[in-house]
């Protein structure tokens, strides 16, 4: 987990468990019982508008899970496809476990359909967007009425929202949690604590392969400038720096300068990759490709966190 002290601007306290840059714990959740589209109970901690078909995702529901982007068009398209398949096959949609995985006869038919659709997409970008949207759509539908929208834990058993204390983040920093779709709504993901504690304006969710999310993040990065964008990743091709290096590069110790920055300073943007080792490699490559298209250079400044063996044992 990553935590930052805001009471003193230059005080950082950061810890991150290995082996990948996945901001999650290793807590295991019990298997969930089956939920179908017709049997979902409404969330108790958010206003989710009822719809006539029981499947449509509203903007209010979407942003209730921590997103700041408009409702992704591809996610809406996948939900509509699932709804149509349920109608044409007359087989009710159901989910198993706690990850929004489709099961039963409907799951088998949908699996064949989505694989055929994926293979028919010749463009790699379209394939990624389809993959991400499908993962997220299924997780959204499968988690309704079961997971708390804030902490992503079972509502009736493990909701921890009452134990989370909001805190302000220093104005000179903004976190972007660049999350793989397979980590979205995972119960043991701890990345969601960032925006629970600091708010979505200071710690913002950006889902890999979702165009609306990535556009918001990159617009903010372009506005800030390349020298104010850092990625938490061990880039072997270039020398990685520490958090202190990133801060000292931009922040003067002159009190007058710091006073001016409160009104004019553009924050440092830290992109935190949230995924397994294999997934994070693909996510980092995508960040490098976008960096090259925006600024003409592929190298994205990276920072690393040093942690000894004893520290990691304590974290475990």
Architecture overview:
The chain contains ten helices and ten strands. With 316 residues, it is an alpha/beta fold. The chain has a five-stranded parallel sheet with strand order 7-6-9-8-10, with helices on both faces. A three-stranded antiparallel sheet has the order 3-4-5. Strands 1-2 form a two-stranded antiparallel ribbon. Helix 2 crosses helix 4. The longest helix has 20 residues. It is globular and about 60 Å long.
Strand and helix map with partners:
Elements: E1 2-4, E2 12-14, E3 35-36, H1 59-64, H2 73-89, E4 94-96, E5 101-102, H3 104-120, H4 124-143, E6 173-179, H5 192-198, E7 203-207, H6 211-224, E8 229-232, H7 243-250, H8 255-264, E9 268-274, H9 277-295, E10 302-303, H10 309-315
Parallel strand pairs: 6-7, 6-9, 8-9, 8-10
Antiparallel strand pairs: 1-2, 3-4, 4-5
Helix pairs in contact: 2-4
**Mean pLDDT value:** 79
Oligomer: single chain
Q: What can be said about the biggest beta sheet? A: 5 strands, parallel
Which class of secondary structure composition applies to the elements? alpha/beta
State the low-pLDDT regions, or none. 1-52, 252-257, 259-263
Order of helices and strands: EEEHHEEHHEHEHEHHEHEH
Q: Roughly how many Å is the radius of gyration?
A: 21 Å
Question: What's the total count of β strands?
Answer: 10
Given the structure, what is the number of helices? 10
Q: Which strand order does the major sheet show? A: 7-6-9-8-10
Q: What percent strand? A: 5-15%
End-to-end gap: 11 Å
Instruction: Give the overall shape, derived from the CA principal axes.
Output: globular
What is the share of helical residues? 25-40%
Protein name: tRNA-uridine aminocarboxypropyltransferase
Biased composition (Polar residues): 34-46
EC number: 2.5.1.25
GO molecular function: tRNA-uridine aminocarboxypropyltransferase activity
